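2 proteins. here.
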Amino acid sequence: MSDWTEIKISVDVKDVDSAGAIANMVVPYGIYIEDYSSLEQEAWEIARIDLIDEDLLAKDRSKGIVHIYISPQENPAEAVAFLTERYTAEGIEYEIDESVCRNADWENNWKKYFKPIPVGEKLLIRPVWEDEFEANGRAVLNLEPGLAFGSGTHDTTRLCLETLENHVESGKTVLDIGCGSGILSVAAMLLGAQSAAGVDIDALAVKTARENAEGNGFSQPELCYVQGDLTDKISGKFDVVVANIVADIIVRLCANVKDYMNPDAVFITSGIILPREQDVLDAFEKNGLEVIGRHESGGWLCFETKIK
């Protein structure tokens, strides 16, 4: 078996939770975080011991380290580029180190932790290798997770999926900005949308999205994906626009997203950490968007807005 790549991200301990949440966007099979800032307290609370290994006591308490693992089929450079962009956008100082990870069957090990999961009231996300599941009347979204963000388990994706349920119905058209794995636009089609379009600057994301669309029985022109910038590649107006990205990009999107919205359309945004809430709210106000819904989970926010 080919070797996996381990990526280690070192950040200030105050940023470790946010850095971990962003890192978890890169891979669908979990991450490992080293955070020794509360070592003695946690050792006592968990194991009721106060004798701790000297090597552990010597660890840097001011830093946290996030570990993720990239399969041989994927490109570590794509993951590093993704992390660099998102950490920079969120103002997180970081150092990234790559190394070869030998003698571990990560590819199979992580799959046993990713099971079919119900989301909201209408959807069930099913990893394609899981054949035993009960849909119980839910629409089944077949998903092949990859490097492209969007396994459905992350708070930001789940918030978007739950919010989409309230706005997508028969005849609606949907635009998915920064589509990642395509999970949101595929879900929109399963929820009854007439058509959907996704756009992403990352070629791997578009490739993964197209594969997931085909795996759920959708193809062009009803569901299409394009690589590139929103303004270069997309035209027309939509009933639902969704962007699960980061705060800085959402702030920039607010300036022209109305060009893609029908008069009664809804703009759903997620991927926003709590400390950036006011920045995003200011952008909504500045650009004539009214907040009609706010949802929070795990320190992440999702907003529903409409044109004032």
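next one coming up
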Amino acid sequence: MPSNHKPGCDEQMELLVDRVKNGDREAFVRIVAAYQQKVFVLAYSLLRDREDALDLVQEVFMRVYEKIGSYRSGENFQAWLMRIARNLSIDFLRRRKKSDSLSDINLDRAELAAEISDPISYQTNVLIHKALMSIPEKQRLVFILHHFEGLKYEEIARRLGIAGGTVKSLHFKAVQKLKKSLEPALGGGK
């Protein structure tokens, strides 16, 4: 999915980051407000547990606050933050080591609906989420990194330590499986 990046957004974020580096807590609160939903979506899509994802969001922003000094001016802040979120999510999954329980997903629709004001958007999100959860983990991770974080295949390959061709293959398979899974719900088909 393309990012909803607005001109001037980078400059504004750079100013907020500089203010945080100088101890401005209000600037940090504004950064959290701007990115907490994106971090939650990424964490939830990987962890598949709402409470774990909420805990991870807090951990991500604590880490961002601790490491803000290592952020290099001019770097894509969102990519930097989402890399932290992805890495902490993967670390969490490694610690949990319960891959069997990962396949059991139970969306609490009432809680999620309360967070999402647009019911059509909510239904679409639930369909996409269920479809994403139905594909193998590596395919899902490549799809999320490409479409939600906006990473190019080469960068995904570097981050995951796999060949570029493997990334393309995993992405292609993910897209095919998602199309097949979503076609009936979206009225598609041959």
